[in-house]
Design goal:
Oligomer: single chain
Shape: globular
Number of helices: 6
Order of helices and strands: EHEHEHHEHEEEEEEEEH
CATH class: Alpha Beta
CATH architecture: 3-Layer(aba) Sandwich
Number of domains: 1
Largest sheet: 7 strands, mixed
């Protein structure tokens, strides 16, 4: 089982380390050819507009769209969640997303860098962990096919912060910035079950 980390910008090294601690073989993905070598992909946090532009110039936008449409497992954190979402509430006029998760997100929905925070989170089917929120997107709406695995209460509302739709997982915070690899292990189980279904 080979898992790719989209290595155009953002927390590439941190996700690679977490995946390797969780037992995965990891490939950094910068080209369509490298994407062809992996069974699943992690889209890391970073700068969402920059990642979108680099996906275009690298040729990965079309290739990754094809793989996602075919059911490839994917895990997006922070900016990666924005890239996988269906609607970006405050995106730039030229900003696009893959539409793999039926969620609406608001960029920097919990505030700018100075408003960063950590909070305990209980994730269904995973366990308890600490969520590190840095310029995090906020999920403001989720479609009926989306399973909410964890919420955080901020400003009096319970916001989804970990969601799943089919083989795709989205996370508002940065699990790769802690030593806890529970979410990465959860994703690897999805990858394994996807591979078993494909060979059945």
């Amino acid at each position: 089982m080979r898992v790719g980390v989209l290595a155009l910008q953002g927390d590439v090294r941190e996700h690679r380390a977490s995946l390797e601690r969780a037992g995965a073989e990891v490939i950094e993905v910068r080209t369509p050819r490298e994407l062809d070598q992996v069974d699943a992909l992690v889209l890391p946090g970073g700068e969402s507009t920059a990642i979108g532009k680099l996906l275009d110039t690298s040729g990965l936008r079309s290739a990754l769209t094809t793989r996602l449409d075919a059911g490839m497992a994917a895990f997006g954190t922070c900016a990666g969640l924005i890239a996988l979402s269906t609607h970006i509430e405050d995106g730039r006029a030229d900003q696009w997303s893959f539409g793999a998760l039926d969620v609406t997100v608001r960029r920097n929905g919990y505030g700018r860098q100075i408003a960063s925070f950590e909070t305990p989170i209980d994730v269904l089917e995973v366990g308890s962990m600490v969520g590190v929120f840095i310029r995090a997107p906020r999920i403001v709406a989720a479609g009926p096919e989306v399973r909410v695995l964890a919420t955080v209460n901020r400003d009096g509302s319970d916001d989804p912060v970990v969601v799943r739709q089919g083989n795709v997982v989205g996370c508002c915070f940065h699990p790769e910035l802690t030593t806890d690899v529970q979410l990465h292990q959860y994703f690897l189980k999805i990858v394994e079950s996807t591979a078993l279904s494909a060979t059945a």
